[in-house]
Each structure stands twice: as structure tokens, then as C-alpha cells.
Predict the structure of Type II secretion system protein H.
Amino acid sequence: MVLVIAALMLALVAPNLVNLIPGSELKAFAQQSAALLRELRSEALNGAEPRALALATEERRYQVPPPLQLSWPEAVTVELNAGNLPGQPVSSDVQPQLVFYPDGSSNGGSLTLGGAGNRHYRIMVDAFSGRVHIDD
């Protein structure tokens, strides 16, 4: 009987645990975003063609080639700061994007993810190595 009551309590409380831990949704999304960037880098290395990530802000998702898709939660803001693509002039008309090249490099830049309570994560992409890491 005690186990049944404990299981019922856990079933009722578990879905709300994310709301109890501030910033957990943002942290999880930052980790998913970094994993997506690492996957794009890996695909560029293995497929011998550049792979890119841009923002589809109206749909609240990353704009990446299929089948990769990742939408961001309502409470999260996303800002993309990317380096210039080779041979492209600096222009406000060009949509910024992070590009990974087959040699392992990238154009470099960062994704800044913000959430409630002034909490944010910055995902940095190194231009020379294409490595992705999270600064919090």
C-alpha cells in the first residue's frame, strides 16, 4: 500500500519538477544546442561539405538541414553572433549563421541563450578548430 501511494505521489510531482528547479530548462536546452552544433561539425567532417546553423526566429527553432530539428522553449531567448563567411562582405542583410567546414574549422561565433532570472549560457564555437563548448 505504501508503494502504491509513493508511486501516485511521484506520478503527480514528477512533471512539475522542472518548474521547481530554476534554470533547469535553460541548462538542458543549452546542452541540446551544443550537441546539435557538435553534430553539424561531425557531419561536415564526414560528409566533406559545409554544414550551417541559422535561426528561424519566428518559428522559434534552429534552421538546419533535415533531419536535424530543435525548437527552443517559450521562456528562452536565442541570439546568434557569427563570424563573417569567407569572401562575403559585412552586411546587415545577410542572415548570420554558424558554418562548419570539412577541414574541421568554422566561421566561429557564439549562441547566447537567455532565460528567466537573468540566467544565460553562451555556446562558443572556435573558428580554427570548430570545437564547441558552453560558458555559463
In short: Strands lie at 51-56, 61-63, 77-82, 97-100, 109-114, 120-125, 132-135. The two ends are 45 Å apart (CA to CA). The mean pLDDT is 84.
